């Protein structure tokens, strides 16, 4: 698509301008130079008024002291002729076929910010970012990702604070390595003690039974001596008794009395033991809580990183008007620098690229006060404009060779009254330095 540029312009009696004719370079810089107060800015304001409409009309449009109303005549590269003249400076737009048209036709290809670049330059960084995102068509997606990232960041911040508190609390809790894992029950210890005492009582009964059998044996031996007559009966009883004795003796040898000393000690120390157990359980719970919140924090960090990568990918794949442009945390950046960290020339380059992208049909941009660029930067900027096929008409407080035309006392040099002309040759044009 061919962009529309300014081929010729003639201005008379507008603000400080008396008579100026310019044929701007089709690509690159056309610098309107001159000293302060000579009418340079009036040239820029005149072009904006001619193409932008009444809202760009200067408050005091007619040159002071002139009885002749302002005259504006601009020929565009698409053949349109734009004129403002007469008492009311009425607009007349003639297309190549001779038909008349008006401001509505101009608005189709004239970008408003191209006529008023300071409006973009002075906008907030976030507003600039919104304009860029609107151009590349990812504003809504990036806004949603920003919202998600902010929500996750706030959640992660809260989780992180809780995790730190939990970890600090867990660290401060005492821990007893010698304490059991679960709380000790006094009734359970007493039950175990009673079981041992019961088993020990049974052992005592068995010992008493052994003594009884031994005494019985003695009595029977005595009876054997006394009662020989009853020998057969006694021997039979003796044989049975011997068997019982053998069994009892074997059982008695295997018996072992359990100690209740440890249980008695545990019962006595139960509160102290349980205090240690509770302390250990509290520490374990605190460490578990801290670990849980730490894991949540790490999970949220992963989600945030994924969203940030999505934002980077979204901007990487977008058709940006200038390599190095991006949006970080809702603010416009260029080569990783925010607006207030960019040089003046970088700001103009970024502004020009974005404004040009707003309306690709508009092939020109107006700039005022280009003296903030040194000659090397000016040359680099001009070369970039030529590569981009973009036309910039700018002013600069200078009468040097970088200027395409010099304005002096409201005249371009070629339009000065003849008696004031010293050298009518065209000044050195932009792009040749």
From TrEMBL:
Record keywords: Coiled coil
Molecular function, one GO term: ATP hydrolysis activity
Ranges in coiled-coil conformation: 203-310
Keyword Coiled coil appears in the UniProt entry: yes
Any one GO BP annotation for this protein: double-strand break repair
Superkingdom to which the source organism belongs: Bacteria
Domain called Rad50/SbcC-type AAA: residue spans: 8-276
Protein name: SMC domain protein
Biological source species: Ruminiclostridium cellulolyticum (strain ATCC 35319 / DSM 5812 / JCM 6584 / H10) (Clostridium cellulolyticum)
Phylogenetic placement of the source organism: Bacteria, Bacillati, Bacillota, Clostridia, Eubacteriales
